[in-house]
Write a structure and sequence with these properties.
The chain is of the alpha/beta class. The protein is built from 21 helices and 32 strands. The protein has a seven-stranded parallel β-sheet, with helices on both faces. A six-stranded mixed β-sheet has the order 5-2-1-4-3-6, with helices on one face. Bound molecules: adenosine-5'-diphosphate and zinc ion (2 copies).
Length: 743
């Protein structure tokens, strides 16, 4: 028998099957998905690969599989990897990597995470027996008695811990074991992320009528064991999570497993706690802050079927879930569900594929659904479930818009408008908390010479540098380049260097000046550096009576601050002026979400949005949290301009350190594509990308607008073949379907 093997490599030309003979006595052990080590080419070491099919004979003289390795995949996983490689234009092995336990990929299998084991101590006899042995002086060593007394009540303690606590040595442990008093058991150590949690269990709430309707619709699909895609659309606080929890309970009762995806950033302890409170620790959490070892353990827990609920960020969709019963994607509009690295997959597409394959429902939840999702819901492709009211009867906040042009006209050059200033003052007086949101970090986003117009730019990227006052440095937010701050213009030597475009650092400085007695805390990438400090900052704000939280996007999602009554949006325009067809959508989403942070319990909330574009519809509809009107305006714009959902957008990006190469290659590829005369497909001229140089690589691109289907995939693959044959050195190509970032 012959196995067709994919070599684990990201080298493009190895993205094909190689034949290997299956040794006679391994016939039963080698199947589709088996992880094998094989001799390959002239390589000295064996190469890792996966069997992707099995056949009777080969047309070549073939080598033999050298070893069978641990960590096999299922046939279904292999098929998904093959499908993904085709759809996302990448190597099959890149897709397989997503499905392997964390830390176990790569050719060097020796560096694999070892399952850590430890020795744990238990009593071997019951305590009465031991006590009488002590009384009868059968046990008389004080050390042994001390050891046993401590062990009684601490069974399952690690051998090193009990020896330390009883101040004894291994000799004592050994003799107690020999005499049958204790038992030392070798066990796997599970690095349990919930170890120090002591959560009170809660009970399920009585669902409101709206919640009940949503619950019943999904329950029906669960009971009937069929695929159906739902959009659970409801404002923040409308009780979506409660519906998720009760549906998950249904699934667990059927001895099945549920997976819920959440955006990385909203995978907060608060949110995990809600699940722990309801279900205890049959939960597995997967996110990037876990160590590789911790992630590996979670993966094993899932594989062995000990986790009934998996909560995780994007890549958790590839967890080896047994007996899957329900998939939920919370905050389904979030851009983090799309991978911006190869394989450039969208978790929603993978989730849909898995839900169909397993005949189970898929739930997408959001207060501000993606335009594309809502469009499908309107067309009946997705079942729409709506929650219109806040579940705990708290009111939506009142929102006011401040026109910054008018502020300028009356001479207010500060970042805080008169109206916002007054509100901050009032809230401080009443000892209520405030959040100020500004989606720009650093102090000033550009530095310019007033005399000659020079602006400080990154030496590696075509991007202005941001001034960071904390370190007195200019930084590039794209490549990380840093340089000393300038006070003299390097071109004309003028001292008239000015700073424009305030970021969170400047906002904090201004607030501290305007309200010297108020306490502030800042949250952005620059303050969130250490492990967990995201959490630490939020807890501080919550528990330590800090008046004002200043932050970027990070503060927006999922957090619950009962005492926040005022939210100020410093510059609503920052997400509008981006060259992206989703600029309106992003602006509406972010404003609605920030506003949702105000007044979540019995205190009424107030929001002030400062903007230079008060008439832009994404801002004016966000004022009333009017998603439906926003959707209507946006969808007609999309239709007019032919943007998704009316087509797919495929970006073919080429980059190179040599500007001439990137231009020539992109022009050739555009020609190849146009010559194919693809029907109903718009192909743009080859042009420089909006940011045309990042990290010393020049960037050009072609944008295609069409219906992404197998015909297009074939045409793009033809073009790729042509590109690989050109063999232009140092040039890279990226093909991104509906990219989350158009820059
Ligand atoms: P969402 O996920 O839509 O933001 P949540 O499920 O977090 O909403 O609910 C918001 C608040 O309302 C929570 O404090 C929750 O405990 C409460 N809540 C949800 N459903 C109910 C209900 N049926 N009865 C009473 N309180 C509820
Ligand atoms: Zn100058
Ligand atoms: Zn740079």
């Amino acid at each position: 028998m012959i196995a067709e093997v994919i070599i684990n490599s990201n080298v493009k030309k190895l993205n094909r099957k190689f034949d290997y003979n299956i040794p006679e006595d391994w016939k039963d052990r080698v199947h589709v998905g088996t992880r094998v080590l094989v001799p390959f080419g002239n390589a000295k070491n064996l190469q890792e690969g996966f069997v992707i099919s099995i056949k009777d004979s080969s047309n070549y003289t073939v080598k033999e599989i050298a070893k069978i390795d641990q960590g096999e995949l299922t046939e279904k996983q292999v098929n998904l990897a093959i499908l993904m490689a085709n759809r996302y234009f990448c190597n099959i092995s890149d897709c397989i990597k997503l499905m392997l336990p964390p830390g176990t990929t790569g050719r060097n299998t020796g560096s694999r995470i070892k399952e850590k084991t430890g020795q744990f101590v238990y009593l071997q006899k019951n305590w009465e027996e031991i006590e009488s042995d002590i009384e009868e002086k059968i046990i008389k060593s004080p050390k042994q008695i001390r050891f046993l007394n401590i062990l009684n009540g601490n069974e399952g303690i690690h051998i090193l811990d009990i020896e330390a606590m009883s101040d004894t040595s291994r000799v004592i442990t050994k003799s107690l074991e020999k005499n049958g008093y204790i038992q030392v058991i070798e066990k796997k150590i599970e690095r349990n992320p919930f170890k120090f949690k002591n959560i009170k269990r809660d009970k399920k709430l009585t669902l409101t009528e709206e919640q009940m309707n949503a619950f019943n619709a999904v329950k029906k699909a669960i009971d009937e064991k069929r695929f159906e895609e739902f959009l659970l659309y409801g404002v923040t606080g409308s009780g979506k999570t409660e519906v998720y929890l009760q549906l998950i309970e249904q699934v667990i009762n059927k001895e099945k497993t549920a997976i819920m995806l959440v955006p990385e950033i909203s995978l907060t302890p608060q949110m995990v706690d809600r699940f722990l409170a309801r279900f205890g620790d049959c939960i597995s959490v997967l996110h990037s802050k876990l160590s590789i070892g911790e992630r590996y353990d979670q993966w094993q827990k899932i594989k062995e079927g000990r986790a009934k609920i998996i909560i995780g960020a994007r890549s958790a969709i590839f967890a080896p879930i047994k007996n899957i019963g329900l998939i939920l994607i919370d905050e389904e509009h979030d851009s983090s569900y799309k991978s911006d690295m190869s394989p450039r997959y969208h978790a929603k597409d993978i989730a849909r594929f898995l839900a169909k394959e397993n005949n189970i429902p898929l739930i997408l939840g959001s207060a501000t659904p993606e335009i594309t999702t809502f469009y499908k819901a309107k067309n009946g492709e997705i079942t729409l479930l709506t929650l219109t009211k806040r579940a705990n009867n708290s009111h939506l906040p009142s929102v006011n818009i401040v026109d910054l042009r008018e502020e300028l006209a009356v001479g207010n050059r500060s970042m805080i408008s008169t109206a916002l200033h007054k509100k901050i003052e009032e809230n401080l007086k009443e000892k209520k908390q405030i959040i100020l949101f500004l989606n720009r970090r650093g102090y000033s986003t550009f530095v310019m010479c007033r005399e000659c117009g020079f602006t400080a730019k990154c030496k590696n990227c075509n991007i202005t540098l941001t001034y960071h006052k904390d370190e007195n440095k200019l930084k590039c937010h794209y490549c990380g380049f840093e340089t000393k701050n300038i006070t003299t213009c390097p071109i004309c030597k003028s001292k008239n260097v000015r700073y424009f475009g305030g970021g969170t650092q400047k906002l904090e400085t201004e607030i501290n000046k305007l309200f010297p007695s108020a306490t502030t805390i800042r949250m952005d990438i620059d303050t969130v550096t250490k492990k967990n400090s995201h959490e630490i900052i939020l807890n501080k704000f919550k528990e330590e009576d800090i008046d004002i939280l200043i932050g970027t996007q990070m503060i927006v999602k999922g957090h619950h601050f009962p005492r926040v009554t005022l939210v100020g949006v410093i510059a609503a325009d920052s997400s509008l002026n981006i060259e992206d067809y989703r600029a309106n959508e992003r602006t509406f989403q972010i404003l609605t979400q920030v506003a949702g942070r105000a007044g979540r319990e019995n205190l009424p909330g107030e929001v002030i949005i400062q903007t230079y574009n008060p008439n832009n519809f994404s801002i004016s509809y966000a004022k009333n949290q009017d998603y439906n009107s926003f959707y209507k305006a946006e969808i007609s714009l999309r239709e007019k301009l032919n943007y998704p959902p009316f087509c797919d957008i495929i970006v073919i990006g080429v980059s190179s350190k040599i500007e001439k190469n990137v231009k020539e290659v992109t022009q050739k590829l555009a020609l190849i594509l146009k010559r194919q005369n693809i029907k109903n497909c718009y192909i743009s001229e080859p042009i420089p990308s909006p940011i045309n140089k990042i990290n010393n690589r020049y960037r050009w691109r072609i944008v295609m607008k069409c219906n992404f289907n197998s015909n297009i995939i074939d045409k793009i693959n033809d073009m790729l073949q042509y590109y690989y044959n050109m063999k232009v050195k140092n040039t890279r190509i990226v093909i991104d379907v509906n990219p989350s970032n158009m820059l």
